[in-house]
Design a protein that fits this description.
Blueprint: H1 8-15, E1 25-26, E2 32-33, E3 59-62, E4 72-75, E5 81-89, E6 95-96, E7 104-107, E8 116-122, H2 130-141, H3 148-170, E9 174-181, E10 187-194, E11 199-206, E12 214-218, E13 221-227, E14 235-242, E15 252-255, H4 258-265, E16 276-283, E17 288-296, H5 307-324, E18 327-329, H6 335-345, E19 347-350, E20 355-358, H7 373-384, H8 386-398, H9 418-433, H10 437-452, E21 493-494, E22 506-507, E23 509-510, H11 512-532, H12 535-555, E24 557-558, E25 563-564, E26 567-568, H13 583-586, H14 592-603, H15 659-671, H16 675-696, H17 728-737, E27 738-740, E28 750-753, E29 761-768, E30 771-777, E31 781-786, E32 789-795, E33 799-807, E34 810-817, E35 821-826, E36 832-837, E37 840-845
Antiparallel strand pairs: 1-2, 3-4, 4-5, 5-6, 5-11, 7-8, 8-9, 9-10, 10-17, 11-16, 12-13, 13-14, 14-17, 15-16, 18-29, 19-20, 21-22, 23-26, 24-25, 27-28, 28-33, 29-30, 30-31, 31-32, 32-35, 33-34, 34-37, 35-36
Length: 846
């Protein structure tokens, strides 16, 4: 075999070390191709108009398979698929090659289009952490506060866990994996760096989901070919080219199966074959393997650039992350980088519908989850990548109905909030994109959802009762994702008459949360219908929203408590107080005075919901709050927990802050114009998210209302470390800085600025309706930049701007200032118009 090194300049033009600029890209082989470059390369995968983009074939993409955090996917014409994985060998001889969630140590920087990706993976799965050891020491140090059995258990376990922790740290091996996508999208350059001595990594080439492929060695390279899954007459070809060979021929082999490869690299024997190849590299601390990988419709020619060229290309691609994708700075604004990286990590490939989506939960579920989780993912993803958000939501509405469910297409009907939240998500895609076709896809399914919901109206009075989910623990509130919320602990089953065929019965609990989502769905459908020209539908859905507003205020407002509370059909109140009392704000149901009472007397009351760590899933003064175990008020570190390995008292439904609740409460408070409270709420939510991100490098499913309490066996704070919708915590802060307007008024209008975020914060590269925006908001100055030009400036005070519409040389908007300020609109010709505004809210036309 003869290598054909590329000319350095040619290579750099192809992989982006010069900034991915120019009129044409050069592939790694040196052959000129017609492919978009520059900023367009970051979104080059979209080949059709929104909202139904596909991925251009052939393409290469880091990650995009469940929990293959160190891997990459390659798809050729005809849908021939190949996979590259980076495996890590533990000191005990275990090969970590997939399902890597527990082994993730640092995430990012990265982008959802694959332009750049970086992760750190360690053999330490963090099942034992310092907090676990401290928990056991706490029990031993205060034997009077725990039961004798707990003290005995802690005394026995502490030395065992100390030894296990020490051994894990001593034997820990960590690698840094980096990828950069070539300008034409068909290849990757990559590097794996050992951060510890005596580190063994495996470069594995095979297929992502067990497809057939022929894999072979070509000198130091690995090549593969496979027929297209959609067109067997087309063959895809793949080549992996490491810059350096393995130490010996025995370290580079092809095997009959993944099991054979795993056996061989862990000290056993693996049968030879052509299903998968493994290249074993043994590295000292600081040593790096560099490589290129590419896919095409023809056999890929040999040609590997020098390692320093790959490193330079990776550095240039990394620099582009902040330059061309969502980014920010400041105490809250820096969350933009974390959200971008987190959503990029969870960008996956739907092998059936052949598009990308956001993976929910902890990295499993067998593909796209079409329940309500994915609606939050869509709103979050729309900040990071419009193609990803649209592909994700399109996937939801293309999904078939699950077996034994109502025969609908679209979001799952077994979670009644799926329709309402997906309607909201689709509407926010419209307000962000301005493309009505995104509504046309979803509208028919959402109308069907709306028209089926009355089967949960047990007494036919117009308000819905909770569906019956059984008497089991773990799902009585599942119709709203509120699985074990104590609100649903005491409802009673009532046989359902008629209905859609859904086998669940009714109950006697008229549910504030469910009716709020029902109203939200009606209101959103009315907006969609107006845009789509369905006048009668718009009138029908608006009337439904108005009726629900009247009924909910008549029946579910508790005048003595000043709260919206669920109620049983016999008239008695369900007095458990959870954040669902604020859900009528989200749906636009509360009267202005009742909204004021909710926010000022309850949300901001530290005895109920307020504090540095918001919002607890049960009010702090409710008997259910942290009621899962004993309280130890004199303990030095842990107020709530029973023993190592068990859930703590502030578990998810007894007090822990849950991102979807925070998101819902924030949007409701913001909707009603409580800008100061909304800003403070967003700042606290974002700070909780960033605390976990900075300390642990993950984004968990829930957060403690009194931090540092949970001491579960699998993790501190949560077992679910990469939960996609957790980004809703930080998105509140980013929406506070700059957002579309999903509520009343012009759907093209913007909201930006903040009265309450700490310090000065920026967010940049936010795309809304075809323009790229940046915002800087601080105590004395707020600026809005569109497409690189400043269009708004406020000086002298903090401001929050709503309903901002820029037309021609001027703009109209509402502005709330925390002191006297001057607001200025700058026209394209350089002229400006300005005026002074007093503290408080003003309507401005300039």
């Amino acid at each position: 075999m003869t290598d054909h090194p590329l000319h350095r300049r040619t290579f750099l033009a192809g992989v982006g070390a010069t900034g991915l600029t120019g009129s044409a890209a050069l592939a790694l082989t040196g052959t000129a191709v017609s492919a978009p470059v520059a900023a367009a390369a970051s979104e080059q995968e979209t080949t059709t108009t929104l909202p139904y983009p596909t991925l251009k074939r052939p393409f290469a993409m880091p990650g995009v398979r469940e929990q293959d955090w160190t891997g990459a996917l390659f798809v050729g014409e005809g849908e021939a698929r190949f996979a590259l994985r980076v495996g890590l060998l533990t000191a005990q001889g275990k090969l970590i090659r997939e399902k890597m969630t527990n082994y993730l140590w640092r995430i990012g920087p990265m982008t959802p289009d694959g332009g750049y990706k970086e992760v750190r993976v360690s053999t330490d799965d963090r099942t034992v952490m310092p907090a676990h050891l401290q928990a056991l020491r706490e029990v031993i140090a205060h034997p009077d506060q725990w039961s004798p059995s707990a003290v005995t258990d802690a005394t026995a376990k502490l030395p065992q866990l100390q030894q296990k922790y020490a051994q894990t740290q001593e034997q820990k091996r960590t690698i840094r994996v980096r990828y950069a996508r070539t300008a034409d999208g068909t290849g990757l350059v990559g590097a794996v760096t050992a951060l510890d001595d005596d580190t063994t990594v495996v470069l594995e080439v095979g297929t992502p989901w067990g497809e057939k492929a022929a894999v072979s060695l070509d000198g130091r390279d690995v090549t593969a070919s496979a027929p297209g899954l959609l067109d067997a007459g087309r063959t895809g070809h793949f080549r992996l080219s490491p810059t350096e060979p393995t130490e010996s021929a025995a370290d580079a082999r092809c095997y009959a199966s993944v099991a054979d490869l795993t056996a061989a690299v862990t000290g056993g024997t693996g049968a030879p074959g052509d299903a998968v190849a493994g290249l074993v590299h043994r590295l000292g601390k600081g040593q790096t393997i560099t490589f290129t990988a590419r896919v095409g419709s023809k056999p890929q020619p040999v040609g590997t650039p020098e390692a320093h060229d790959i490193e330079r290309a990776l550095a240039a691609a990394e620099a582009r992350v902040r330059g061309h994708h969502l980014t920010g700075s400041g105490p809250v604004g820096r969350a933009a980088d974390a959200v971008r990286d987190a959503l990029s990590l969870n960008t996956n490939y739907d092998k059936d519908n052949r598009r990308n989506y956001v993976m929910w939960g902890w990295g499993g579920g067998g593909g796209l989850f079409t329940g309500w989780d994915s609606a939050f993912d869509c709103v979050e993803a729309a900040l990071v990548s419009h193609p990803l958000a649209v592909q994700h939501e399109t996937d939801v509405f293309d999904a078939p109905a699950p077996p034994n469910q109502v025969p609908l297409r679209g979001p799952r009907y077994d979670q009644q909030n799926s329709g309402p939240m997906h309607a909201y998500a689709v509407w926010r895609l419209y307000t962000k994109l301005g493309d009505r076709t995104v509504l046309e896809k979803a509208y028919p399914a959402l109308v069907t959802f709306h028209d089926l919901l009355p089967e949960w109206d047990t007494d036919k009075d117009g308000l819905l009762e909770s569906p019956y989910f059984g008497d089991r623990i773990g799902g009585r509130g599942n119709h709203l994702g509120l699985d074990d919320s104590p609100v649903y602990a005491a409802y009673h089953r009532i046989a359902k008459q008629g209905g859609s065929g859904d086998a669940r019965d009714n109950t006697d609990l008229t549910d504030v949360a469910l009716n709020s989502y029902y109203a939200l769905l009606a209101e959103t459908l009315a907006k969609m219908a107006r845009v789509l020209g369905h006048r009668r539908d718009a009138e029908r859905f608006a009337a439904r929203h108005a009726t629900l507003k009247r009924l909910l205020n008549d029946r579910l407002w508790h005048p003595g408590k000043g709260l919206y509370l669920s109620r049983y059909l016999d008239g008695t109140w369900n007095e458990t107080v959870t954040p669902t009392v604020f859900y009528p704000l989200f749906a636009g149901l509360a009267t202005r005075e009742r909204a004021r009472v909710l926010v000022e007397e309850h949300l901001l009351n530290p005895e109920e919901f307020w504090g540095d760590h918001v919002i607890p899933s049960v009010a702090r003064n409710d008997p259910a709050y942290c009621s899962g175990g004993p309280v130890h008020p004199d303990s030095e570190h842990f107020k709530y927990f029973e023993r190592y390995g068990e859930n703590s008292s502030p578990e998810q439904w007894l007090g822990a802050a849950w991102p979807p609740m925070n998101f819902t409460v924030y949007d409701g408070v913001k909707r009603y114009g409580f800008d100061d409270a909304a800003g403070r709420f967003a700042a606290r939510s974002t700070a909780m998210y960033l605390e976990a991100w900075d300390k642990e490098g993950w984004f968990p499913e829930s957060f403690d209302p009194d931090p540092g309490q949970s001491v579960m066996a699998s993790a501190v704070d949560t077992a679910w470390r990469t939960y996609s919708w957790s980004n809703a915590m930080a998105v509140q802060g980013l929406h506070e800085l700059l957002s579309d307007n999903p509520w009343d008024g012009d759907p093209s209008a913007l909201m930006f600025g903040s009265l309450a975020l700490p310090g000065t914060n920026t967010v940049d590269n936010v795309v809304l309706r075809g323009h790229t925006y940046a915002v800087s908001a601080g105590p004395h100055r707020t600026t809005l930049v569109r497409d690189g030009r400043t269009v708004f400036r406020a000086t002298g005070a903090r401001v929050a701007v709503r309903d901002f519409v820029l037309r021609g040389p001027g703009a109209t908007f509402d502005v709330t200032a925390d002191g006297p300020a001057r607001v200025e609109v700058l026209a394209p010709d350089g002229r400006s118009r300005s005026r002074k505004v007093p503290a408080g809210r003003s309507r401005v036309e300039l």
